[in-house]
Specification:
By secondary structure, the chain is of the alpha+beta class. Helix content is 54%, strand content 21%. Strand 1 and strand 2 form a beta hairpin. Helix 1 (3-23) packs across helix 3 (69-79). The longest helix has 21 residues, at 3-23. The protein is globular and about 55 Å long.
C-alpha cells in the first residue's frame, strides 16, 4: 500500500469519526469506534471497520450507519478536497470482538484459579 492511500485512510477515519459523532443519532448506550479504514488502491471504495460495545448493539449500529450512509457520504464528499472520494462500506471489526471474548475467558479462569 502506498503512502497516499495510507494518508487517505487516516484522513477518512478522522473525518468519519467527527461526522458520526456530530451528525448521526446512534442507538442508546452504544459506543462505536472506527478501528481502521482500508481504501482500495484505485480509491473507488473504502471499507470502514467499526467495533461496537456492547456487542448486542452491533446489528442496530450497522443498520443505523447503513440507513445514513448516503448523508454521511455527502458530508464526507464536501469535507474532503479530493476526487474521487471512496464509497463507504461498513464492516464489523471481528478482531475487537475476539479480543473481548479472550479477555472474558481469562477473567473467568482467574476467578476460578
Amino acid at each position: 500500500m502506498n503512502d497516499r492511500v495510507i494518508k487517505i485512510n487516516e484522513l477518512i477515519k478522522r473525518e468519519l469519526g467527527q461526522i458520526i459523532l456530530r451528525e448521526i443519532e446512534m442507538p442508546e448506550n452504544a459506543v462505536v469506534t472506527l478501528t481502521r479504514v482500508a481504501a482500495s488502491g484505485n480509491l473507488q471504495q473504502a471499507k470502514v471497520y467499526i467495533s461496537v460495545v456492547p456487542d448486542e448493539k452491533a446489528h442496530e449500529v450497522l443498520k443505523t450507519l447503513g440507513q445514513n450512509v448516503f448523508a454521511i457520504q455527502q458530508i464526507l464528499n464536501r469535507k474532503l478536497k479530493m476526487r474521487p472520494v471512496p464509497k463507504i462500506l461498513w464492516v464489523m471489526e471481528k478482531a475487537t470482538a475476539e479480543a473481548q471474548r479472550i479477555e472474558e475467558l481469562l477473567a473467568q479462569i482467574k476467578e476460578k484459579g
